[in-house]
Amino acid sequence: MRRLFDTVKYALIDRKLQREVKERYYSSREFAALDRALLTAYIFKNPYIISKKYLQNRQEKELHTYGETPLTTYETIAKEVDIQPTDTFLELGSGRGRGALFLHHFYKCKVIGIERVPQFIKLARHLAHKYQLKEASFICGDMFQTKLPQEATTIYLYGSNLADSEITQLVTRLKEIPLGTKIVTISYPLTDYDSRVFKLEKTFPVSFPWGETEAYLQTRNVYE
């Protein structure tokens, strides 16, 4: 009963968020067409169920790790980070690719998404090809193992469901990125795990379907 209540609750929240997306962003006909194509593809393919089935097939213990960042929150992040057309935005765990495609369209930056669920990657690549988005690419792989593109100037991690051991593993991987690279994390700063390698630049409020929280902007520090 509780799960049914949560399903209905989040369905109503998603509907509200989509109304806001239409009001704020669909004045761009190109983006409206792109976003509608993505959403239409998932009408009978709930992304949460797709992710759950993928994790079940891999015999993972935690099956409910999927979550999406609202497009309004991507806009907040882009403004706080000052995303420019010369930037490359790397998203660790890009899901359906909706946020990456949004940033590519409105901020003209290069985007790269890393996502382990093949079905998400297949459709994101299809849309990027269909709409001739040459600077939008998607890598099918595990962010804990896939080599991180060194050209990224900003990295985004929405990893609120990650265990401490997983965050520690990612922190070790992020030590490989170039100095000065910006990293945005949700709910916790990387300085909690290594204050020498990462420098906290600022925090700012962001919204998710489950509530308000803080985003942390940090840079790969010159000192180790």
From TrEMBL:
Ranges where the DOT1 domain occurs: 1-224
SUPFAM superfamilies xref list: S-adenosyl-L-methionine-dependent methyltransferases
Alphabetical list of InterPro entries matching this protein: DOT1_dom, SAM-dependent_MTases_sf
A Pfam family the protein falls into: DOT1
The protein, known as: DOT1 domain-containing protein
